[in-house]
Predict the 3D structure of the following.
Amino acid sequence: MTDYAALARELNRRVLEDPERRLLIIKEFYAERLAAGDPDGADFVLTLRSITMTDPQPPKWLVPTGVGFGLLTLIFLMAIVLLNVAGHEVSPSGKFALVGTMAFGAAFSAAAWIGSATLSGDVSQDSKKPLILSATGGFAMFVLVFFLGYSFYIK
Amino acid sequence: MSQVNFDNLISEQSESGRALRKLKNWMQSHNDVEVIYPNDLARELRSVDPIALTTALTFLVKEGVLKRVYKVITPGGVLADRDFNDPTEIPDKIADRFENTIDTSDLDIVPVFKKVA
């Protein structure tokens, strides 16, 4: 029995070797399958390729970036708490910068997480605009954290 | 949606029965969708094995429930309007949605599945 998954990988390998001739290579492949008396296989491979090899995946750095920003924000807050315990008060003008830094950290972290989740299809099945969702989520997180920080810490 | 009896199809194709059942449920819950994009479908049916899903789609094409056509992905990332029955029909140059002529040699294609009335 023909291994269509292997054929799909082979087609993808050929395309990656010479992407400037992408469609020509696909046409050659299709013609080869037709010549081999396997027109259904040709369509099968192109459908399988479309399902498995063109699905946009989130870049590998996106989740570590989100975790990194979250961790940095947490460490920053812990340092502030420790300094506070040690008797170093945050000045009134420093509070604004502190809340701003915290909001930016949370926003970048949320944007990275939402971007990753959207690209991998975990957020909305109909979503086609991961960048917009990611930016909106990040902005919403910034507003939320800044508002809460301003209301409960600065005021 | 077509009135084809999916249950019969599922029993005829036991190997891909699960994929067909999932596809049946998806098509019933997306009754207004006339064109199925395999990539989007696979995202929604993430638990279905890609080969089984391809088999299910191919099966529905053979049964006349769906029609497979190919579309060119333009450099802007959108699909060109024109449908092709197979990739060898795609000419060297096509018009995009703004009637600009584009060279197709380095472009990719995707199969899409249209519901047969």
Summary: The helical segments of chain A are 4-17, 22-35, 39-52, 62-85, 92-119, 130-154. The two ends of chain A are 73 Å apart (CA to CA).
